[in-house]
Structures are given as structure tokens and as C-alpha cells.
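Side project, low priority. Logging it here so it doesn't get lost.
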Amino acid sequence: MTTTPWKQFKQAARLETPEQVPVAFIVDSPWLPGYAGINTLDYFLLPDKWYNIHRGLLDRFPDAVWVPGFWVEYGMAAEPSAFGARVMFHHDRPPSIEPVMTDLKAWASVRAADPHEDGLMPLVLRLYRHAEERLQAEGLGIKMVAARGPMVTAGWVVGITDLMMGLVTDPASVNKILDTLTTSIIRWLHAQLETLRQPEGIMLLDDIVGMVSLAHYNEFIAPHLQRIFNEFEGLVRIYHNDTPCQHLYGAFTEANFDVFNFTHKVDIAAVKAEMGHRVALMGNVAPLDVAVRQPPEVVARHARACLDAAAPGGGFILSVGGGVSPDTPAASLDAMLKTARDWSAGR
């Protein structure tokens, strides 16, 4: 049976050792418009341009896995827009977001979002349907969808400062807010998955989790993450959190996700030792200091170091320590892909 990068990714997600270590990149509106040389507003507004950019990645980088791939997103705005957050669009970067109200008690009584009617979510669903139809005509398809997690969404909706203070001053309201947002996120992921013919995975992104203590994580956040990931048992479940928060990594192994994309600011060998028996690791080349600012030979050296430290024993996916940063040259991605091919061939 012919293997593919996606099949290799799934093997690694199951803690297996595929024939070649997969290489995966999280790409979205911070990188793609600049990579394609177009205005960010055109990237969002013109579906043919959006489609052609994503489709072109499959031909330009045939050995890469794109996570989630054909991602319909408006920066981080889809989830908070469903709750009335102010969204401001820009020509040269993703949208910025501002909360419209910071009263925790008022937010604690808000209803869960309806992804078919609220904010930008219906537009995302419609574009997913059109993209999936075009890909199916080529014998292709979208494998995965994504959502922002409850803490990062709460941060956009109520404001980071008020959210963090509320963990101490008004824990009951924070719990209600996070519960409502978790329900909304589960609905949102289901609605996206329903637009696909053969969905196989989800990705949840939540860096704000890394800003809390272990005690607050266990009290406020762990139940919500577990609820989300438990809901999608049987799919490949990726958790992205590139905040340096190694104090939480042991607890993360109980959240029931399969793949962890984490920061380059922690020692990958230590993370492999702590988590590698429970979840697959996806990283860990520095996205800015190395992938953007260094020549391909330096990128290759860092990629090889990651492979040497974390690939033996399986359960490893080479990537950058987070999403692909703006201005990352294609040559950096090429260097990582070639390094993984050479490393796998020589082991």
C-alpha cells in the first residue's frame, strides 16, 4: 500500500514509527498572504485566490502535511466574533480583536454560540463547503478542521486582564464563561466537520492556558479541554500551545489529545521523556529566530537536532515550535523537508 505524508502523520500520532518522519506545518493568514504576495484583505475576500494559494501548497511542497490544511480562518476572529467582539481588518496582517464588554458576571449568563448564524462562523462553513466540493472533483479532500480553545476565546471576549483576575476574584463566573465557550467550541467543530466528506482530525489552539498555574489549570481548564477532546474520540486530535509552560506538560497528558505542538523554548528531549509515552510531539525548530532569520543550512542543522532528540522510538512530527511565522521563506520549509528525508533514509 502506497504511503502518503498524511498516513505517516497518522502513524506518528498513534506513537508509531513511520517509514519517514512526517513534516507538518501550521499555516494561516499570518504567513500565507505574504508567501503568495497578495493583500491580506484579498486573501480573505476572494475565494478563488484563497483556494489557489492553499491548492498550490500541495504541488510546491508535496511531502508536507498542512495543519489543518485549507484552513478557513479570519485570524483568531471566528470564535470571538460569535459573541460580538469587535473585529478590525487590515491590509497586511490578520484582524485584530477587542472585547466589547469586560463584566464577567454579564458574560457568565450569555448563551452558547450557534455556528450556523453567529458572527463569521456561517461564512467559514460556506467556504468550507465550496472548497471541499472543488477538492473532491480532483480526488482530494480536507482532512482536518480547527478551533480556538476556551481560554484564548475568553481572553478575546472579556479581556485577558479581567479573565486572569477573575480566576481569583470571581471563579464562579469564569467557570460559567468557560463552560459556555466549551459548548460553543464543540458545536463549532462539529459544524465544520459536517461540511467535509471524510474528516479525520481536529486541532485546538489555546496558548492562554500556558499562563496559569498548575492548580488553576486543574480547577478551571482541564475539565474543559478533556470535554472537547473526549467529544472527538476516534479522530486525530492536535493541541497547539506554544506558550512556555512546562509546569503543565504532565497534566496535559491526561487531556486526551494525540499530538502536541509546543514551543521551541523548552528542551525537546526533556519533553519527549516526560510526554512521549502518552502523546506524539510536533515541533520544535524556532519559528522566528531560525526559520525566518537563518539560512537553509542552519535551519537544517536545527531540524536534525530535533530529529536526533525526539524521533527515535516514534511518535514524532517535525515542525516549527508553533505556526509558520510571517516572512518565513519557502527555502526554510524545503530545508526541513529534506532533512527529514535524509534522516529517515540514514537511520
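Brief comment: The chain is about 45% helix and 15% strand.
Revisit when time allows.
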